[in-house]
Design a protein that fits this description.
Length: about 950
């Protein structure tokens, strides 16, 4: 009896303990309510919640951070967690003990399913096949058992440290992380028959989880230098997206629900939330930090465990017609033409017809899902059989007006038309080109054909978050904005290098619009609550709208009306308009809006279209808000943005990750165009008619070497007489080869700038002044001209400006003008110096001449005076030496006070004197003074030397007597 009592008491204590460790009961279910009565109903969950491990317990908390409750305790401090929503059960594994447990929402106790070892590294529940999968990092295995703990077996062996396993039962895929020399993401089918490596990384990967809504894999990666990020890819390892984010590696866990990603932060002890694609600033979910860091995070909601409509056939293929016979087993599928059944028999795979040599294409083949088409290299054209390529040759005879050359056929020469257009009945004219789409796809920017048959990637940026894109039809430049990189860039429509335009003071540029007439661009910044603008080169930036903005998203520009139109998804959602300068604001629509994200303008009807992402509605109205209509409702999932052309609307659907088309008036004819997107955002239709007023010939003459005509927004090239258009559709060749004489370009070419030749070749006599609607077409006082024959506009720029609309400063002209001014300045200075020097020289010459003449008038020169002095001195010395001491000249008398008139004749040369005898001397009754003798000799005999004068004299010393005449 004693023993029985002890057993009974122990059983009661064990039952009480199990009851205390069970899920909290009462009326509580997954979301706290039972749909039935007396606890017999099934659980429903109208509101999602977070389930996580905190300390040694499993807790739940609402996505708003409220109503935190403890569900199970104790469970251990290091656990792996998952749930089975339909089975109303929670599953966890204790890493330290190696035991796997489960607890039912309805039951009062937990159940031990399996005791493995201490090396469990991952746990996942298959809610369709009712399996539990786990990985052993130490043993390198993936194992599976039923949700009731039976039929345990090993699926995969000899793996390299597998961990963090996840399962997608609808696709029958297993995913896990592997840690070897490099980390990798692995995939296999549920049976473990086919294993493939999706991608490898040098960084450490953790916390693999699945986005069942968009069928993508998410994980965290940690670098050696402390960097970290959230990365994702599709089920094939493609379309990689990396979002840099500071994370804490220890005990990191994350889960996804709809557009948000939830993850644990070990440092702050909180659960954080952010957009899974665009990122942004993380928000704390729980109001107060927890005492310990939360781990093993899961979002509980039926959307996170979707059930397949046909439990056997893979829903990837819409051509599988049979439903599988039994749950958990592959059924039998039949595939349509162009597809083949996979080896597992669970889904249909595309047949690559181009890989087999029975496609019939002569030169090129391009595979598309379910079919293929033939292609030709440059310089070749496709014949009407759509398979054979022939070389394009110059046309002759009656088909000389073909703009792109001819193809030789059995019936003769046939005009070539570009892809997407058809030859009209005249046999020479091609129909207009079909539209193509420019799509921002978060990690890339693509150009796709309207039917989805062609796809070209212009920009690829795995770390980008590109939501906004637009293009300039004049220069064929594509402009795009990245939220993660916080930049605005551009690239040519044909590819090439990227130009960084704006990088400062950008936070979240989610909308972008290009004004192709006024040559500016505008963008919205939801984090700054502003609308900014700049030139197309990123210069002259300014804030256009700031007041009464909360979260501006989409934006469009109407250059002809000079209007900006944008959407605001703040607390008071609105569609609003203003002038290009931000004034004259007017509300277009405000009632019934929740999240108006995108908008577009139909320029042919001056009508506005916008979409509401939360409501799934597309509406339209006039530019003033009148005549508001609902175009489509609940047909396009989650529309983010849209574009209009002719009668069609192209809509980017975030729910199905597709581009869809509907009729713009009634919303009918719903079709999908392209589906291989990560997150299609902005959509732009590329066609000449979508942006009116754009003259394709204004930039570089449209690429034409001779005559350019702008038709439907496209440049149409033609040639002068005696020239034909070459096969490239741009250059012209002479009809008679080298014998043709080129016409002087000056007779038919006009330019808008003295530096850059970029305008149309028009006849000036046909030009008219632009209408008032284009009064601001030419900037900086440029004169606008309109050419009626070509329906085009051109500008005559003033000096110092250039460009198709005079929007650029002519730096070369300014430099030449500055150099010319500098040259003129130097020449002026040099001329002044020369004139000054000339004046100084003239003054010096005049002064010299004047002084010289003055000296000549005053007396003899220095030499003459010197000769006279020497003569006087010689005469004086000679006289003194030859005459007696006393000369009788002192006693001489002059009658009448004058000398005799014949006195000059008394002078004698030295020879005459020597030959004169004493008798001749006695004939003179008087003598001359030395000074008078010198003057007489200077006058009568200028060539006589002064020394000869010293040999003669008037007074002679002689022994003869001196006779006085008186």
């Amino acid at each position: 009896m004693m023993f029985a009592a002890v057993i009974t008491a122990a059983a009661m204590m064990c039952s009480a303990l199990q009851s205390s460790e069970a899920l909290q009961r009462g009326p509580a279910c997954w979301d706290g309510w039972l749909s039935g009565t007396e606890g017999n109903g099934s659980c429903t969950a109208s509101q999602p919640f977070l389930m996580f491990c905190h300390g040694k317990s499993i807790h739940r908390i609402g996505l708003d951070g409220r109503n935190q409750k403890r569900l199970v305790s104790p469970v251990g401090s290091s656990v792996l967690l998952d749930f089975h929503f339909k089975g109303e059960s929670v599953y966890w594994a204790d890493r330290r003990t190696g035991v796997i447990y489960t607890a039912s929402v309805r039951a009062a106790r937990r159940q031990k399913l399996y005791s493995f070892d201490k090396h469990i590294s991952g746990l996942a529940v298959d809610w369709i096949g009712n399996f539990v999968y786990w990985t052993s990092e130490e043993k390198g295995e993936v194992r599976r058992m039923d949700t009731n703990g039976k039929n345990e077996r090993t699926l995969l062996r000899n793996l390299t440290k597998p961990s963090s396993i996840s399962v997608d039962p609808t696709f029958r895929f297993l995913f896990w992380l592997s840690f070897g020399m490099v980390s990798s993401v692995q995939r296999s089918d549920e049976g473990g028959r086919i294993i493939m490596t999706l991608l490898t990384s040098a960084e450490q990967l953790k916390a693999l989880t699945i986005d069942h809504q968009h069928r993508r894999l998410f994980w965290a990666q940690f670098g050696l230098q402390g960097e970290s990020a959230i990365a994702s890819c599709d089920y094939s390892g493609k379309v990689l997206h990396i979002m840099d984010l500071p994370l804490q590696s220890p005990s990191f866990a994350m889960s996804l629900f709809l557009e948000h990603l939830y993850y644990t932060d070990a440092r702050s002890h909180v659960v954080k939330r952010l957009n899974k694609y665009t990122g942004g600033k993380p928000l704390d979910v729980n109001i107060k930090p927890m005492t310990k860091a939360p781990v093993a995070l899961k979002v509980v909601h039926p959307l996170n465990q979707p059930t397949s409509l046909s439990s056997g056939c893979d829903e990837r293929s819409g051509v599988c017609v049979n439903v599988c016979s039994s749950p958990g087993e592959p059924g039998v599928c039949q595939c349509s033409e162009g597809f083949t059944l996979s080896k597992q028999g669970t889904h249909c795979e595309d047949v690559n017809e181009c890989a087999h040599w029975n496609h019939g294409c002569s030169l090129g083949c391009e595979n598309i899902p379910g079919s293929y088409f033939c292609t030709c290299p440059e310089g070749y054209g496709l014949l009407p059989d759509r398979k054979t390529c022939k070389e394009i040759i110059p046309c002759g005879g009656k088909v000389t007006n073909c703009g792109r050359g001819c193809l030789p056929t059995e019936a003769g020469l046939v005009c070539v038309c570009p892809r997407g257009s058809a030859l009209l009945d005249d046999g020479q004219t091609c129909s207009g080109p079909p539209p193509s789409l420019l799509v921002a796809n978060l990690v890339d920017v693509r150009v796709i054909s309207a039917d989805g048959s062609e796809d070209q990637t212009l920009v690829r940026d795995p770390r980008g978050a590109i939501l906004a894109v637009d293009y300039d039809p004049i220069q064929n430049q594509v402009y795009f904005a990245s939220i993660s990189q916080k930049t605005i860039e551009r690239i040519h429509l044909k590819g090439g290098s990227r130009d960084l335009l704006v990088s400062d003071d950008l936070l979240s540029p989610e909308g972008l619009a290009v004004d192709w007439v006024h040559r500016r661009m505008y963008w919205t910044d939801s984090s700054k609550s502003t609308i900014d603008g700049s030139t197309l080169a990123g210069h002259n930036r300014k804030t256009v709208v700031r007041e009464k903005l909360e979260r501006p998203k989409g934006i469009a520009v109407h250059p002809l009306k000079k209007k900006l139109i944008w959407t605001d998804v703040g607390r008071r959602p609105v569609v609003e308009a203003s002038s290009l300068e931000g004034g004259d604001r007017a509300v277009i629509a405000s009632s019934g809006l929740v999240a108006p994200t995108g908008l577009t303008i139909d320029f042919t009807e001056d009508r506005l279209f916008w979409c509401d992402q939360k409501r799934g509605v597309i509406e339209s109205a006039g530019l003033d808000g009148s005549d508001r209509r609902v175009v489509s409702e609940n047909q396009v999932g989650q529309p983010f943005n849209l574009a209009v052309f002719e009668d069609q609307l192209w809509v980017s659907d975030w729910e199905r990750q597709q581009i869809r088309t509907v009729h713009k008036r009634n919303g009918k004819n719903l079709q999908w165009t392209h589906s291989s997107f990560l997150l299609p955002a902005s959509v732009i239709v590329l066609h000449g008619l979508t942006k009116p007023g754009a003259d394709a010939c204004l930039h570089l003459n449209g690429g034409c070497t001779q005559v350019c005509e702008s038709q439907e927004g496209l440049a149409r090239c033609s040639c002068l007489p005696r020239y034909v258009l070459s096969t490239d559709g741009k250059t012209c060749s002479p009809v008679h080869g080298s014998d043709a004489e080129l016409e002087s370009p000056s007779s038919w070419m006009t330019t808008t700038s003295p530096v850059e030749d970029r305008t149309q070749h028009h006849n000036r006599s046909s030009a008219q002044r632009c209408p008032s609607s284009h009064e601001a077409y030419c900037l900086y006082q440029g004169v606008c001209f309109y050419y009626p024959e070509m329906e085009a506009y051109a500008c005559n720029c003033v000096s110092g400006y250039m460009g198709e609309r005079c929007q650029f400063s002519d730096l070369e002209w300014l430099e030449l003008r500055r150099a010319e001014k500098e040259k003129r300045k130097k020449v002026t200075i040099a001329a002044c110096i020369v004139v000054l020097l000339s004046l100084l020289s003239l003054i010096a010459c005049v002064t010299y001449c004047f002084r010289t003449r003055r000296l000549l008038y005053k007396g003899p020169s220095v030499d003459d005076v010197r000769e006279i002095s020497v003569a006087e001195e010689s005469v004086s010395q000679s006289t003194t030496a030859s005459l007696p001491q006393f000369c009788p000249a002192a006693e001489r008398r002059v009658v009448g006070g004058a000398l005799p008139t014949d006195s000059p004749k008394t002078a004698r040369s030295s020879s005459s004197t020597t030959e004169t005898d004493t008798g001749s001397l006695s004939k003179h009754i008087w003598y001359q003074s030395p000074a008078a003798a010198a003057v007489v000799m200077e006058t009568t005999q200028p060539d006589t030397k002064p020394t000869s004068l010293s040999q003669s004299g008037s007074c002679h010393g002689s022994s003869s007597s001196f006779q006085d005449p008186f």
